[in-house]
């Protein structure tokens, strides 16, 4: 035996000997992976998808600033909305059509592609016609945001 002193206390080092359980009696047991609370990524809510589709439509129509969508969309999605808004503005100038329309969202259809990606569509009804909004949502920094967004 060997004695060490550490901080005034005597520690005894035990000799390493044979394994107390013989190899013939050992068994492998399957253990489920450990999960931390919050590991599960929640699906985007229908309310969030409908609100984001409505706000994107309003941004394309010029009734809302694209900056108001903030962290709910990526930089690429903001550029797509700006391009769609510019094209709509040009068409309105050519045809001299100053009308604005207020959307009423229909039901959101959601499909999870992977744990971190979901795709959604929403049909927005206006007085004159129906418009479709397609969204590709990505889970980033603890929230869902639109990576791609098209208003048709």
Class computed from helices, strands and strand pairing: alpha+beta
**Low-pLDDT residue spans:** none
Strand content: 25-35%
- Provide a count of the helices: 2
Radius of gyration: 29 Å
CATH uppermost class of the domain at 46-151: Alpha Beta
| CATH domain topology of the domain at 46-151 | Nuclear Transport Factor 2, Chain: A
The assigned CATH architecture of the domain at 46-151 is Roll
Please describe the biggest sheet, giving its number of strands, its sense, and whether it closes into a barrel: 4 strands, antiparallel
Average pLDDT works out at 83
Question: Helix-strand pattern, N to C?
Answer: EEHHEEEE
Strand order across the largest sheet = 3-4-5-6
Distance between the termini: 82 Å
Account of the 3D structure:
- The chain has 152 residues and is of the alpha+beta class.
- The protein has a domain at 46-151: Roll (Nuclear Transport Factor 2, Chain: A).
- The protein is 24% helix and 33% strand.
- The chain has two helices and six strands; from the N terminus they run E-E-H-H-E-E-E-E.
- It has helices spanning 46-61, 75-95, and strands at residues 2-6, 9-13, 104-114, 117-125, 130-140, 143-151.
- The strands form two sheets. It has a four-stranded antiparallel sheet with strand order 3-4-5-6. It has a two-stranded antiparallel ribbon with strand order 1-2.
- A hairpin with a 2-residue loop joins strand 5 (130-140) and strand 6.
- Helix 1 packs across helix 2.
- The longest helix has 21 residues, at 75-95.
- The chain is elongated.
- The N and C termini lie far apart (82 Å).
- The model has no long low-confidence stretch (mean pLDDT 83).
């Amino acid at each position: 035996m060997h004695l060490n002193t550490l901080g005034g206390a005597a520690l005894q080092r035990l000799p390493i000997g044979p394994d107390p359980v013989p190899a013939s009696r050992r068994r492998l047991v399957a253990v489920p992976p450990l999960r931390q609370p919050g590991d599960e990524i929640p699906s985007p809510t229908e309310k969030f998808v409908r609100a984001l589709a409505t706000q994107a439509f309003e941004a394309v129509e010029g009734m809302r600033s694209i900056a108001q969508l903030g962290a709910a969309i990526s930089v690429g999605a903001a550029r797509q909305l700006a391009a769609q808004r510019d094209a709509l503005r040009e068409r309105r100038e050519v045809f001299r059509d100053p009308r604005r329309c207020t959307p009423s969202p229909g039901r959101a259809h959601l499909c999870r592609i992977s744990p971190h990606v979901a795709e959604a569509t929403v049909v927005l009804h206006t007085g004159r016609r129906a418009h479709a909004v397609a969204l590709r949502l990505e889970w980033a920094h603890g929230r869902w945001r639109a990576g791609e967004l098209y208003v048709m």
